[in-house]
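Dear support,

Our group has been running a series of protein-ligand predictions, and this particular one with uridine-5'-diphosphate is the one our PI (initials K.S.) wants archived with full inputs and outputs. We had some confusion internally about which version of the output was final, so please treat the block below as the authoritative record. The input we submitted was:
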Amino acid sequence: MNNTEQTLSIIKPDAVERNLENEIKQMFKDKGFQIIREKKIQIEKSEAESFYKVHETKPFYNDLCAYLSSGPIVVMVLEKENAVVGNRELMGATNPKDALDGTIRKKYGISIDKNSVHGSDSPENAKIEINFFFKD
Ligand code: UDP
Ligand code: MG
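Confirmed final output from the archive:
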């Protein structure tokens, strides 16, 4: 059964700062993802707070929002069969220390907070997150 999906991916400030944008995009393309939309932006802390609202009770929430808004990010809509879970697999575990070989976070992640990429965690959240950054 065909299940073409879209998911939201963000290349976070630590990776943009290290000029890893093209390498990371190539990893997506090598796995068969199409980059449907993309833009490089810097967001306000208030926008990061809104984007990460599900985490507002977590101890790391403030630092996370400060970090995501600390520098340019690349926001992308990725499309592929089962894109949401496929992107989570390619990203690897939240903590790069736990990420498997061949994943983006294993290759490029610095620490649990500077872990280079964001990816939607469910098809429902993918729709919400895509709409957050690409409203039209
Ligand atoms: N995060 C953190 N400390 C933690 C857990 C998470 O700084 O103990 C950050 C990390 O950058 C992570 C983001 O918060 O990517 C969102 O957390 P989530 O559990 O949703 O992880 P993800 O979906 O990004 O793997
Ligand atoms: Mg998450």
